[in-house]
Design a protein that fits this description.
Strand content: under 5%
Order of helices and strands: HHHHHH
Radius of gyration: 20 Å
Number of helices: 6
Helix content: over 70%
Number of strands: 0
Shape: flat
Oligomer: single chain
Distance between the termini: 44 Å
Amino acid sequence: MLIGAVCGIPGASYLTGLHILITSKSSTATQVLGVILFVLIEFLLIIIPFAFLELRPEATKAALKKTHDWLLGHARQLMAYTALVLGAYLTVTALVRLT
């Protein structure tokens, strides 16, 4: 939930998205619906864990513990794969820019 809260802090992209929704030439009803959906999607990283913790607290805690243990057990592999994917992406974009 903490990650969701940090991700939900309004930043430049959040404010830009709201600005585009509000200044569009759509009807007022469409703009209001767009803003509501935009904010809802933006805060899903907070809403989903909270809903699961409220509806099924024990199952959610067990799933989080299992996921946490798996992530700790595979940390080196995940870091290696992340570095490999990022390196491949940077190499491809550099080659594309050279041509």
